[in-house]
Amino acid sequence: MRKERLKKNNTSPRKIIFAVLRWLMIILVLVWVAREIYKTGTDMANYRWEPRFGWILISATAYLIAYIPAWCYWHIILRRLGQHPTVYASIRAYYIGHLGKYMPGKAMVVTLRAGMVRSDRVKTSVAVASVFLETLTMMAVGAMISAVLLFVFFREQKFLMLVSVSLMLVSGLPVVPFFFKLVVKIAGAIKNDAAMNDALNRFDAKTLLCGWGLMCVTWFFLGVSLWATIKGVGISSEDFWQHIPRFVAATALSTVAGFLSMIPGGMGVREMVLSELMNRYFQIVVLPTGLTPKVAGLVVAGVSRLVMIFSELAVSALLFFQFFGRKQ
Fold first, then answer.
1. CB neighbours (10 Å) of residue 73?
2. Other C-beta atoms lying within 10 Å of the C-beta of residue 321
3. Strand segments (E) across 67-172
4. pLDDT of residue 1
5. Are 35 and 315 in contact (CB under 8 A)?
6. SS3 for 92?
7. How far apart are CA 250 and CA 228, in angstroms?
8. Which of 231, 243, 217 is nearest to 59 (CA)?
9. Are 274 and 303 in contact (CB under 8 A)?
């Protein structure tokens, strides 16, 4: 009895190493996040503006709400692939995993999310595949939405329309069930892995269509977040329903372009595309004294970046520390 108790209480070296590596990854992510905050804050230091913190809070809230449908899709994928994560485990891994995008490349997002959701209920290899499915689906839907909205409302943006279609194909084709299974097989991920092979056979067009519907809701709320940010920096932004297509298109295309650029957090690429799509809008609205359309684009892009970072840090801290004492 005593031996069994000691055996139960002893932690294997493998688990200790995994825990240490996880903490190191989190520390590295936080260092990179701090660096992004510093860079964004420095770029905005020369501009004077009067923030409306109520609207900034609304923007942050809309940003976090936007990812609930995306998380739901990831949870659905895991369940569809034969895994059984708890709701808390998957939502914790999903939101904390977002911090990984501030590291070079995109591997840290996959590592953080898959590492945090893995358990006796979730196989690591399947979790990794599910992260790719959810992320690429989100990017494909974002590119499609931006292409459609640009074609309907902003036909003068021919180059960006072409970019949108290209990005949709690049991120969309790999998540089509047939192609995704083919890519995984070519990569050798299912070699001698019966669980992975069985999981892939469960992924079908019905699941993918469910994801596309949920991701449309995600991109809408991200557009709402941008609108609230614009109001938060003191720029008059009325006629919400008239301009929401531009907000959604600007948010979607800039985010997708930043993601596929492989630059940490899409820094620079996201701001450039966002400013370009919002430039004409800032020419027709009332701007604060001394604020030009170009500067307005930089300010909104910068504040939007800060809203993203602080929102993700806040919810990640809450979810991470709530983890202790909870059974996965």
1. 26
2. 9
3. none
4. 45
5. no
6. helix
7. 14
8. 231
9. no
Tokens of 250: 């600007």
Poorest-confidence range of 28-37, 53-62, 103-112, 285-294?
Answer: 28-37
Query: What residue type is assigned to position 91 of the chain?
Result: I
Answer whether 101's CB lies under 8 Å from 265's CB: yes
**How far is 215 from 221, CA to CA, in rounded Å?**
10
Interior angle at CA 102, CA 99 and CA 108, nearest 5? 70
Decide if pLDDT at 234 tops 50.
yes
Which whole-number Å values give the CA distances from 221 to 57, 165, 228, 321, in the listed order?
Answer: 14, 22, 10, 27
Does residue 292 form part of some domain? yes
Element (H, E) at 284: helix 269-284
Rounded average pLDDT over 272-276: 81
Predicted confidence band of residue 214 (pLDDT cuts 50, 70, 90): very high
- The answer to the question of residue 128 being in a domain is yes
Provide the phi-psi class of 285: left if phi over 0, else alpha when psi is between -120 and 50, else beta. beta
CA torsion, ordered 167, 163, 143, 221, to nearest 10 deg: 140
Please state the rounded mean pLDDT for residues 295-311. 86
Query: What domain range includes position 211?
Result: 67-323
Looking at the structure of the chain, the number of domains it has is: 1
- Answer whether residue 27 shows pLDDT above 60: yes
Name the residue among 208, 220, 232, 29 with its Cα closest to residue 116.
Answer: 29
pTM, whole model, 2 decimals?
A: 0.80
Give per-residue pLDDT as tens, 93-136.
Answer: 999 988 888 776 667 888 889 888 888 888 888 888 889 889 99
**Which tokens belong to 231?**
């109001």
293: pLDDT strictly greater than 80: no
Q: Considering the domain boundaries, does residue 268 fall inside one? A: yes
Answer whether residue 34 is part of any domain. no
Percent of the chain predicted with pLDDT > 70: 76
Q: How many CA atoms lie within 13 A of 138 on its CB side?
A: 26
